[in-house]
Amino acid sequence: MDIINKLLFVLLGLFIILNFGLFMGVSMRKIVARVARRNGVPFYQPWLDLIKLYGTRDQISHGIMFYLGPVFRLSGGVGIFLFMPLIFGSQYFNNFSFAGDLVLILYFQFFGMLGMALGAGEGGHPYSAIGISRGLSQFTTIEVPMTLAVISLGIQYNTLSISEIVAAQQGGFQNWTVFTNPFATAAAMLSLLGAFGHSPFNLVKAPNEIPIGPPTEYHSTFLGVLQTNAAILHVIEAVLFMNLFFGGAVNWFELMLKSFLIYFWSVFVGVVFPRYRIEQSVQWFLKVPLLLGVIAIIIYM
User: Could you tell me the sign of the dihedral formed by the alpha carbons of 150, 155, 160, 165, in that order?
Assistant: First the structure.
């Protein structure tokens, strides 16, 4: 019965995260539209899109890995969720977190990207290699300063358990990592811009530049799987940064508020700055964020 109850609360948490992710995504689309003096899509549009896509079947034949790409992508997002503690101090919404779960979650972040790279290679599109090289090159440079920030947290808190890191930040906002380790926080928050994939780091899809990428190559249920993963992944990555740097959350309202503000940080930057070229993006991540990550480690060593 304990296992059944645990699974039920995990599914409930996944349902809440999915719907909040859909709401957060359409909210950001509305904000971007209003900046451009447009009305944007209605708030119920993401739910209609999922219903339409999951109700459509595909008659185009590709290689088996092409269809496994979205599955790998969704597995990465759901995998991060399963081992991510959501509400601090809650035995119901702690999911399957364990000692050292932060290392596993970092692996899951790269898992979905590798799956999409393998899937794109089976698509047969002549420009697939462009998207693969852009995505893997940029994501690799994103992981470097992010990993340095995590190593700095491990040295600071003497643990790689997310729950223990959140516990160490309790007792007031002055104990949050953003104040006790600002260099690691800055390195991670700059890496977050690339992880979310908004402008100026939306190089894989490259809207208005090349009419290819997952929204064009994938359709029907496969595109629905990708959109489902996007809704889950954006929220759960924001929750990860909330746990590591902003004190975690003790209730659902605090989780939604903090994760919304963290996600808004990437949207704000995307509205202000135009897109980089791939060489500009790689060089940028290996300069400022990397330097901040090195400084964070040196200070806490």
Answer: negative
Question: What are the extents of the domains in the chain?
Answer: 2-300
Whether the bond into 200 is cis, omega within 30 of 0: yes
Nearest to 278 by CA among 214, 205, 196: 205
Q: In this structure, what are the phi and psi dihedrals at residue 299, rounded to the nearest 5 degrees?
A: -65, -45
Closest-CA residue to 193 (of 118, 123, 276): 276
Find, among 191, 210, 214, the residue nearest to 201 by Cα: 191
Q: How far apart are CA 5 and CA 11, in angstroms?
A: 10
**Average pLDDT rounded to a whole number, residues 292-300:** 89
Q: What is the DSSP letter of 301?
A: -
Determine the length of the chain.
301
Instruction: Please give the Cα distance from 176 to 75 (Å, whole number).
Output: 31
The label of the residue with tokens 């739910």 reads 47
Q: What is the pLDDT of residues 231-288, one digit of tens each?
A: 898 899 899 999 999 998 999 999 999 999 998 888 888 777 777 887 888 888 888 8
Both tokens of 73, joined, read 């992508």
135/116 Cα distance (integer angstroms): 9
